[in-house]
């Protein structure tokens, strides 16, 4: 066999064989991989919108997704906004739960972050940061309380606490939240969010 | 063709030709994912899987591949197994897969794997290639295990996620950051060289 | 015949009356005012930190000398004591002592001995120790207590530069008064609070010609010009150059850290580039970076350029021709 022919034949068959092998593996694992992703989102919605029994995807754009949480009767009880934005070091992905009228936050969950361990990474800390995000008035822009206070009672209705020593990370989260609430409000006004069209198991 | 005994073929990967400590290959995953033992172990095992199967396949078809296209063929074979490992982790260990991020696909360019194909599997029998791959993999996994153990214990005070250090201990956060990886690897390499020197001078 | 007949050392070779211990003990004396200031403001905490750091540095040095089979007399050259003193000077007074010891061990082991000991290190050892602590224990290294001369009843306390960066102190009018910065009546690391004590020590070193005057002058000049431009453009947002000179570790860094003979350039031109570079990087970090203070990182950063500066600012050898 001529060398050039042999080269073409060998490369083609290696490519074909591995291609078909990978296609099989891809099909076999596809379902599970997607299930994993779905589970993660669902677990977050149940956390941020208390009382959720099932959830719906209401809107999807790059780095900005809105899910609706429904109770047993299937009525929409709140929104879960999955959003990414720039933090101190890298992207922060979080999910914010709000009530249906978009006036009160229910809960904040950090999905993914790469802030400085020990400082900025405290945005994942329940006692230092997350608990201060429950039941905040988000009908106006939320603001940071500086310097930090000890209990939620000391904060005004639309204030959240700063993490001591990690002002930039706290501010990043605040900015992401304020932007996304504003964006969702705009979308509802424009009628782009309708209730319960596609169901997400 | 290798003239070593079967035993030597295996043990050379553990120390004398240890891919990380002696050949300084595969340093990217070694530095990047060893902040926690579980990640280091998963990366070591995924790399081993790719190395072992690539070595077997390459040594089987070594006669068929013209030398001009051998690198291209090796890379396609390696990439196939890497993708399998990547999909497997994403499907069954989603948390680890998320932690390892881009470093699983990057196994394709891990020099240990292509290096073994070039240096060994393309010239030796299937059996020897398998033993060689097993030895190199074990060397790689062990090194990652040692490095990630140091980093997890000092950096988080835990081992495999279990608290091992007392409450008096403040984690050295630097150890789970890239700087800690370089420091720990540098010290490991220094110790390895020192032991090597000692054993050589005794002979 | 042994292989050790010719001892080669890298150039440049200077002959000088000064010996290493003589220089080192001049530095120790020059640190005395700052040490007393830290004892006055932070009392027992300062004393314990200083003792721990110096003892740990000496112990680490002794272990390494032993391992490398070198004479233990080298311990007395004073360099380990200085590293310990300087490291303690850069630590917050409330830092737990075990962390200070870890920092001191790292400073000598990683900062100095792995490179081959005194004279071979690339980075200032004390700053290597501090950089390690800063990254390893970011919370403890950024927790401050007020000086014990102040009667303030707060759990947390910020440094003047922290106020500037995080609390918008210029606009709020809560910036620490220059008088406090000058005498040292503020929060901060042990040795950085009192500008007066540092200036006395620095002038002593300059008068004894132990340090190169270009380095402190260059750093002060470039930082003043850099921060001065922003201050003149918008005095409501930016602090004055005088504030930047007196606050934080600038004087400590300019007089005692950047001037380390081993890790600073040897040619006058190289020294100017090095010093001006440090000042500008400090300004960049303080005004635009994530950290309130940048003296440590900018000195370490410019340390990396020293071999390059030495090579490219080398005066031409007599008779050498410029390459065509």
General description of the model:
The complex is a heterotrimer of chains A (201), B (203) and C (324). With 201 residues, chain A is α+β, with helices and mostly antiparallel strands. Chain A has one domain (45-200). Chain A has helices at 3-48, 167-189, and strands at 54-61, 64-70, 76-86, 91-99, 105-112, 143-145, 159-161, 198-200. In chain A, strand 1 and strand 2 (64-70) form a beta hairpin. Chain A is elongated and about 85 Å long. Chain B has 8 helices and 2 strands; from the N terminus they run αααααααββα. Chain B has helices at 6-11, 27-32, 37-61, 70-92, 94-100, 111-121, 126-156, 178-202; strands at residues 158-159, 162-163. In chain B, helix 3 runs parallel beside helix 6 (111-121), helix 4 crosses helix 6 and helix 7 (126-156) crosses helix 8. Chain C folds into 2 domains: 21-136, no CATH class; 160-308, no CATH class. Chain C has helices at residues 20-67, 79-89, 97-109, 125-136, 160-166, 169-172, 178-183, 195-207, 214-233, 241-246, 250-257, 268-288, 295-303, 306-312. In chain C, helix 2 (79-89) crosses helix 3 and helix 12 runs antiparallel to helix 13 (295-303). The model of chain C has no long low-confidence stretch (mean pLDDT 87). Chains in contact: A-B, A-C, B-C. The interface between A and B is medium-sized, with 20 and 22 residues.
List keywords for this structure.
heterotrimer, A: 201 residues, alpha+beta, six-stranded antiparallel β-sheet, 8 strands, disordered C terminus, B: 203 residues, mainly alpha, 8 helices
How are the SSEs ordered, and which strands pair?
The complex is a heterotrimer of chains A (201), B (203) and C (324).
Chain A: H1 3-48, E1 54-61, E2 64-70, E3 76-86, E4 91-99, E5 105-112, E6 143-145, E7 159-161, H2 167-189, E8 198-200
Parallel strand pairs in A: 6-7
Antiparallel strand pairs in A: 1-2, 1-8, 2-3, 3-4, 4-5
Chain B: H1 6-11, H2 27-32, H3 37-61, H4 70-92, H5 94-100, H6 111-121, H7 126-156, E1 158-159, E2 162-163, H8 178-202
Antiparallel strand pairs in B: 1-2
Chain C: H1 20-67, H2 79-89, H3 97-109, H4 125-136, H5 160-166, H6 169-172, H7 178-183, H8 195-207, H9 214-233, H10 241-246, H11 250-257, H12 268-288, H13 295-303, H14 306-312
Helix pairs in contact in C: 1-2, 1-3, 1-8, 2-3, 2-4, 3-4, 4-13, 8-11, 9-11, 9-12, 12-13, 12-14
